[in-house]
């Protein structure tokens, strides 16, 4: 004991002595501390007595001054990895083939049971196999070519449908009525031309470790540290195998000295992996256990436990974190997509896809909202249909009502004229004649290079711009074409002599532009000057000088045209079309009793109009068509995709704010001289955005002008009778509506009668609901004042309120499934079917994304060009299974029930699936019964060069395409699918995407999956 204390005291003495000597010596520089050591970046600097030492870090080799990475994958039999070894700086990492997961030891690979997740996507039965899985069908069904869905086996039909054809995988009909067998990717057709032999290209040949192809199929081998099991597929560690066989081998350990055995078990990794759960390393002090990434070593120093990365800061995931064995996975909420860092979530801009909404699409985080232009209303969640205002109490018109696209107009019988409120009719006799507004004028002239035309509008100008690349400009007042109006044989014009003493011609022309998109931009200053000088120059001779009563220019880009259920045809290009409507008053002063009667003059006018349209067409084709209205000049532009860097690039009624064109708000108008939005002056109002002028407040002549500035609607002009009141001119002073009448609008000269001798509860009633009816009608009904009963709303109409005397017509071309409908969502578009395009297109259930109608039958056909095949992706489909397959979608070779079937379903599947057509052409049918309805489907397709058939089938039949939730979201992302389909249809489009764009569009796992397929396809 004394020796021990002496040694301790001696050590303390040496320490104290050393500290005193250090204090007396000058400060010694430490290169390791100040960074002047010169060690390599991958080396460690260690301070020694009076010097330092550079040592390469673990995983690197060298003298410390120069270190290079040690490639562990070249050492110790592939780094100990049973599948693939990936060297990384200072370390290495084992990875497994598709269909396997890395084991806890970080080296072995274990089979993934794909059937545990969503039944592997199989419609019926999923059977797991080593490295893969396969779907099987119930009796009476056979597996379709997509290897996931099952098709009912027809009782009657061709060989592949109803006979034991003997094909192990795929059966094809031959022209002579026989069968030809094919195998799925990763299999080879056997010599008997019926069976299929597994190869190493499918699920690693069913081998856990190494697979080698032979004539009789794959042969499995194991890594040097493992031994093959009796099943000839699985592998276990050799030490474990030795231990398991020791019960049958009496000499296993009996001849070994017990002390040596104990030492081996405790101090070496050679026996039982040193007791380590994962990685074992022999050291001078014994074994040292470690765990791979994603696991942590437990206090016993042996066991590895999975780290739940999601518990700490949600794993770094923006939205959802799902823990997996040895790792984790980030997922995003609906409406978001996972970025390439596999952590961050980005909002999906649904509005990027031009078919999302009919009119205006407003994107929001995780969703979007569709909006309709004024005069239209929403149906089917994304569509816009014209509101038939005349169906609701005659539109409030006292006499006649005509519905128009996006609006309506009241008109009066002969002897009456329309009141200032545009609803009531007053006697025309004794009223002072109104000053006619200036008419729109079209002037055209021959200049250098061809025709140039100017359309000038000084009054009654209206601009509607529902989207960034569509617009409608109207000028003047249209003449309604009534049911009893006269029409010529070609339908080019209509006459309404009962409304005016001047006959009018109405004609429509369409001007197409193959490369331009709609863009109405203000002319630049230099162009303005040239236009003004041209208009004022006496030498500026007009070849055409026509005054119209009404002009409408409606420009629609290809992406904004009404949806077609016929897909996209070959040769159909992006572009725009301008639909122009002209109304021209016949000059009755040219009528002479001797030489030319009214019909003669009208024919002359038609001839001049046709000539003017031809000149206008040339002007538009040469981009020499200009508009002048509200003090501003505008031109059609073919370069709308350039950024709006100048205010002159904004459309009519818009100003530049920041770098975005914004429409002037209601209550304001765009002033061309000042180049900004101004409040409507007193006595005017504006109830629409993006207008070039304000409307004059209604009122009798001599009435005091309203002092309200910036009035946003007619009622803000002031002085009008409020709802429930009336006067002889619609302005103050006013009287309340008498008992038995009501008035819901402002500024009216009469009140509506309840009808049927009904009375109101009080004077000044505002709605029919204040009339004391015999019964109160529920939604879906209207009150009949003749029978005093509630009548169900007929098909094509609905009513969502109690106690009304009318039903509202469904918007646009929609109708209801049955009578008695209670809301607009029951109005559905039944349009569907047709012949689809040659390269890309889509089929969708009618009224999608709203519920499809009842008792509908749609038929589509796809006829690819020569040497092209069809690929179809079903992102999701919603068909109610409660109807016992009353609603179904089927894809066959032809309409014959026994023809080759590619796809058939009557259920809901939210898991996407892709497949190639089993036939050269496709006949597609969707039918619904009168039972339950659903959202239906929108299914895109693409035709591709048949030289890529093997590659495409290899991709779509591989279950790994659907294994990851992130991969499934790719097949549902319309933007990404469009990019993939564009390249498949036209491979040259691949060069439109940079490598960086491709990496940013798709997750790394998806790119790796496709790359492996392409490389295998290109491998000689």
Summed up:
With 1020 residues, the protein is α+β, with helices and mostly antiparallel strands. The chain is 14% helix and 32% strand.
Q: What is the topology, as strand order, of the major beta sheet?
A: 44-49-48-38-37-45
Strand content: 25-35%
Give the N-to-C terminal Cα separation. Answer: 81 Å
Q: Main beta sheet, described? A: 6 strands, mixed
Q: Residue-averaged pLDDT, rounded?
A: 79
Overall 3D shape: elongated
Radius of gyration: 41 Å
Instruction: Label the structural class.
Output: alpha+beta
Helical percentage: 10-25%
How many DSSP H or I helices? 14
Number of E-type strands:
75
Contiguous uncertain segments of 5+ residues: 1-25, 240-266, 481-500, 559-573, 638-648
Describe the structure in your own words.
Pfam families: cEGF, CUB, EGF_3, EGF_CA, Ephrin_rec_like, FXa_inhibition. This is Signal peptide, CUB and EGF-like domain-containing protein 3. Residues 832-944 form the CUB domain. Residues 1-24 form the signal peptide. It comes from Lates calcarifer. The chain is α+β, with helices and mostly antiparallel strands and 1020 residues long. Among the domains are: 2-69, Ribbon (Laminin), CATH 2.10.25; 309-347, Laminin (Ribbon); 441-457 and 465-663, no CATH class; 834-1018, Jelly Rolls, CATH 2.60.120. Helices cover 14% and strands 32% of the residues. It contains 14 helices and 75 strands. The strands form 31 sheets. Strands 44-49-48-38-37-45 form a six-stranded mixed β-sheet, covered by helices on one side. A five-stranded antiparallel β-sheet has the order 39-40-46-47-43, with helices on one face. A five-stranded mixed β-sheet has the order 66-68-74-71-72, with no helix packed on it. A hairpin with a 2-residue loop joins strand 48 (625-629) and strand 49 (632-636). Helix 9 packs antiparallel against helix 14. The two termini are 81 Å apart.
């Amino acid at each position: 004991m004394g020796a021990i204390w002496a040694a301790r005291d001696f050590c303390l003495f040496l320490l104290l002595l050393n500290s005193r000597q250090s204090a007396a010596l000058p400060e010694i520089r430490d290169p390791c501390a100040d960074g002047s050591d010169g060690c390599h970046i991958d080396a460690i600097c260690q301070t020694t007595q009076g010097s330092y030492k550079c040592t390469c870090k673990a995983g690197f080799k060298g003298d410390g001054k120069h270190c290079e990475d040690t490639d562990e994958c070249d050492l110790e039999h592939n780094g100990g990895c049973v599948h693939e070894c990936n060297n990384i700086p200072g370390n290495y990492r084992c990875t497994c083939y598709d269909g396997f997961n890395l084991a806890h030891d970080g080296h072995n690979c274990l089979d993934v049971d794909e059937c545990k997740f969503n039944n592997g996507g199989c419609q019926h039965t999923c059977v797991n196999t080593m490295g893969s899985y396969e779907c099987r069908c119930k009796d009476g069904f056979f597996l379709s070519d997509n290897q996931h869905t099952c098709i009912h086996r027809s009782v009657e039909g061709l060989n592949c449908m109803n006979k034991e054809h003997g094909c192990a995988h795929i059966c094809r009909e031959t022209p002579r009525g026989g069968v030809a067998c094919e195998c799925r990717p990763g299999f080879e057709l056997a010599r008997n031309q019926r069976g299929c032999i597994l190869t190493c290209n499918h699920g690693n040949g069913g081998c856990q470790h190494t697979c080698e192809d032979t004539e009789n199929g794959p042969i499995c081998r194991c890594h040097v540290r493992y031994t093959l099991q009796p099943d000839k597929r699985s592998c276990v560690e050799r030490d474990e195998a030795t231990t398991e066989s020791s019960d049958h081998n009496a000499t296993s350990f009996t001849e070994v000295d017990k002390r040596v055995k104990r030492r081996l078990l405790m101090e070496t990794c050679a026996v039982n992996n040193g007791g380590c759960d994962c990685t074992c390393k022999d050291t001078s002090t014994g074994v040292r256990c470690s765990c791979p990434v994603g696991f942590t070593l437990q206090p016993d120093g042996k066991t590895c436990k999975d780290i739940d990365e999601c518990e700490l800061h949600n794993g770094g995931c923006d939205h959802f974190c799902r823990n997996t064995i040895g790792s984790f996975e980030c997922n995003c909420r609906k409406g978001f997509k996972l970025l390439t860092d596999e952590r961050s979530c980005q909002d999906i801009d649904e509005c990027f896809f031009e078919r999302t909404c009919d009119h205006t699409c407003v994107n929001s985080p995780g969703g979007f909202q569709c909006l309709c232009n004024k005069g239209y209303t929403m149906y089917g969640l994304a569509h816009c249909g014209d509101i038939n205002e005349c169906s609701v109490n005659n539109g409030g018109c006292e006499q006649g009502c005509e519905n128009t696209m996006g609006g309506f107009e009241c008109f009066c019988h002969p002897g009456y004229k329309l009141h200032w409120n545009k609803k009531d009719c007053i006697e025309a006799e004794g009223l002072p004649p109104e000053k006619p507004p200036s008419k729109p004028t079209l002037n055209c002239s021959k200049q250098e290079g061809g025709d140039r035309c100017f359309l000038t509008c000084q009054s009654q100008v209206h601009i509607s711009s529902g989207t960034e690349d569509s617009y409608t400009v109207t000028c003047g007042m249209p003449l309604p074409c009534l049911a009893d109006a006269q029409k010529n044989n070609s339908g080019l014009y209509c006459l309404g002599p009962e409304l005016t003493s001047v006959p009018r011609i109405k004609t429509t022309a369409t001007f197409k532009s193959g490369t331009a998109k709609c863009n109405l931009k203000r002319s630049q200053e230099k162009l303005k000057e040239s236009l003004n000088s041209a208009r004022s120059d006496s030498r500026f001779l007009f070849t055409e000088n026509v005054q119209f009563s009404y002009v409408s220019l409606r420009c629609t880009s290809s992406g904004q045209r009404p949806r077609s259920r016929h897909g996209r045809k070959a040769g159909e290009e992006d572009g725009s079309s301008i639909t122009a409507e002209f109304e021209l008053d016949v000059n009755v002063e040219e009528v002479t009793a001797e030489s030319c009667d009214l019909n003669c003059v009208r024919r002359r006018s038609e001839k001049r109009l046709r000539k003017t349209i031809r000149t206008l067409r040339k002007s538009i084709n040469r981009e020499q068509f200009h508009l002048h209205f509200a003090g501003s000049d505008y031109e059609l532009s073919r370069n709308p995709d350039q950024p709006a860097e100048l205010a002159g690039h904004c459309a009519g009624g818009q100003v530049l704010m920041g770098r975005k064109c914004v429409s002037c708000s209601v209550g304001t108008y765009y002033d061309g001289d000042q180049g900004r939005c101004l409040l409507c002056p007193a006595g005017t109002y504006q109830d629409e955005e993006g207008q070039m002028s304000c409307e004059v407040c209604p009122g009798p002549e001599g009435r005091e002008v309203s002092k309200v500035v910036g009035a946003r609607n007619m009622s803000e002009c002031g002085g009008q009778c409020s709802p429930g009141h009336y006067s002889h001119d619609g302005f103050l002073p006013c009287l309340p509506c008498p008992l038995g009448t009501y008035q819901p609008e402002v500024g009216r000269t009469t009140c509506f009668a309840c009808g049927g001798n009904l009375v109101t509860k009080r004077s000044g009633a505002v709605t029919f609901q204040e009339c004391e009816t015999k019964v109160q009608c529920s939604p879906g009904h209207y009150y009949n004042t003749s029978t005093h009963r509630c009548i169900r709303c007929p098909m094509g109409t609905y009513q969502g309120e109690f106690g009304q005397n009318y039903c509202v017509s469904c918007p646009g071309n929609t109708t209801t499934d049955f009578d008695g409908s209670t809301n607009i969502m029951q109005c559905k578009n039944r349009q569907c079917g047709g012949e689809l395009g040659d390269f890309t297109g889509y089929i969708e259930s009618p009224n999608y994304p709203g519920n499809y109608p009842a008792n509908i039958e749609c038929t589509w056909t796809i006829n690819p060009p020569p040497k092209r095949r069809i690929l179809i992706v079903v992102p999701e489909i919603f068909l109610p299974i409660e109807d016992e397959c009353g609603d179904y979608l089927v894809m066959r070779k032809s309409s014959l029930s026994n023809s080759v079937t590619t796809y058939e379903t009557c259920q809901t599947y939210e898991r996407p699936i892709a497949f190639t057509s089993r036939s050269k052409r496709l006949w597609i049918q969707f039918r619904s019964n009168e039972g339950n309805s659903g959202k239906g489907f929108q299914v895109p397709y693409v035709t591709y060069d048949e030289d890529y058939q093997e590659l495409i089938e290899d991709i779509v039949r591989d279950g790994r395409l659907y294994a990851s939730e992130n991969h499934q979201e790719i097949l549902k992302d319309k933007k990404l699918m469009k990019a993939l389909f564009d390249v498949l249809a036209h491979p040259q489009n691949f060069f439109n995407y940079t490598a960086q764009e491709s990496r940013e569009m798709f997750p790394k796992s998806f790119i790796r999956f496709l790359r492996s397929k392409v490389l295998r396809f290109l491998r000689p």
